[in-house]
Specification:
This protein is 74% helix and 5% strand. With 219 residues, the protein is mainly alpha-helical. It folds into two domains: 13-74; 77-219, no CATH class. The protein has a three-stranded antiparallel beta sheet with strand order 1-2-3. The longest helix is centred in the N-terminal third of the chain and has 30 residues, at 18-47. The N and C termini lie far apart (85 Å).
Amino acid sequence: MAKVKSEELRTKEKPVDFILVVTVLIMLALGIVMVLSASSPSALAESGKSYTYVATQGFSAVLGLILMTIISKIDYKIYKKLWKIAYIATILLLLAVLIPGIRGDSHGAVRWVDLGFISFQPSEIAKIALVIFYATYLTNVRDRIGKFWDGFLAPILLLMPVLLILILVQSHLSASVLIVLIVAIMMIMAGSKLRYFITFGSIGAIRRRRSFIYTCKIF
C-alpha cells in the first residue's frame, strides 16, 4: 500500500525543465564572469582585493538559486489569485521612490528604495509582478484575446501608468523598454493579433519621421 502511494506521489511530481535550468545557469555564469572582468580593476584600487564585487555577486547568485528552488515548489495557481494585488503593488512600489527617507538617488535618477538593511530597485520586482498580472489577465480574456479592446488596447492602457511612473518619476527608460517587450511578447503568445502591433508601430514610426523632418527644416 505504501509502495502504491509513493508511486502516485512520484507521478504527480512535475519533471524538471532541464533546458530552462541549464539556460539560467549558463546566463548566471556569464554574468559573474562579466562582473569579474569589469569590476576587478576598480575593486583592486578601492579595497585592495580584485574579487570584492564578484564575491557579492556570487553570494547573490547562490541566494537566487536557493530562492528559485523554493519558489519552483509552489503551485503557480496561488499566484493567479494575487493578480490584482500584483498590479496595485507594482504601482505603489514604483511610487515608493518618492518617499523621503527611503528614496535613493543616483546621478539624478530616483530608482532605488533604501531601507537601511537592504536596498533594491522597485522596477525589478515590478517585472515579476507584471508577469503574474498579465498572465492571469490574458488567461481570463483568452476567449476574446483576438478582439481589439480586450486583446490589445486594454492591456496597453493598463501598462501606461507603470510606464509613466518609470519614465517621468524614475527616469528609467531601459526598464520601461524591457517591460514593454515582456508584455508585448506575452500578448502575442497569448493570441493577440500581430497586425495591431504592426499598425500602431508603423503609425508611431511615421509620426517620428515627420517630427524629425520638421526639426531638420527648422535648423
